[in-house]
Amino acid sequence: QVQLVESGGGLVQPGGSLRLSCAAPGSIGSISDMGWYRQAPGKQRVLVAKIRNDDTTDYDDSVKGRFTISRENAKNTVYLQMDSLKPEDTAVYYCNCNHWVRGWLTHSWGQGTQVTVSS
């Protein structure tokens, strides 16, 4: 796997917005899909959203209509636009990239960025 670099987390009030970014190195090669996971305090890591090579997307029901995942292929970067944030969105958010290395599908991760939604 390779190192993914995340940014954009922080503290925001309920109803506010944040935009997370995740960049993979240019040497990563062919990407299958990228996504965002989150792990709330005392909870397991779960999938929030992913975007495939054909630009189709999946979202967890808890974020549909509020979060938007997108990517900028030339920069090997994926974004998560988070609107109408709720306290339940508080978690560490992890970027994931599934990509091909020597003919095998490889799973790389970012180190996590904290998102806190609180009054």
Q: What is the element layout, followed by pairings?
A:
Layout: E1 5-7, E2 10-12, E3 18-23, E4 31-39, E5 46-52, E6 57-59, E7 67-72, E8 77-82, E9 91-101, E10 104-109, E11 113-117
Parallel strand pairs: 2-11
Antiparallel strand pairs: 1-3, 3-8, 4-5, 4-9, 5-6, 7-8, 9-10, 9-11
Textual characterization of the structure:
It is a single chain. This protein is mostly beta strands. Helices cover 0% and strands 55% of the residues. It is built from no helices and eleven strands. The strands form two sheets. Strands 2, 4, 5, 6, 9, 10 and 11 form a seven-stranded mixed beta sheet that branches. A hairpin with a 6-residue loop joins strand 4 and strand 5. It is elongated. The protein starts with a strand and ends with a strand. The model has no long low-confidence stretch (mean pLDDT 95).
Largest sheet: 7 strands, mixed
SSE topology string: EEEEEEEEEEE
How confident is the prediction overall: mean pLDDT?
95
Global morphology: elongated
Query: How large is the radius of gyration?
Result: 14 Å
- Give the terminus-to-terminus CA distance: 38 Å
Helix count?
A: 0
How many strands appear in the DSSP assignment?
Answer: 11
Oligomer state of the chains in this structure: single chain
Helicity level: under 10%
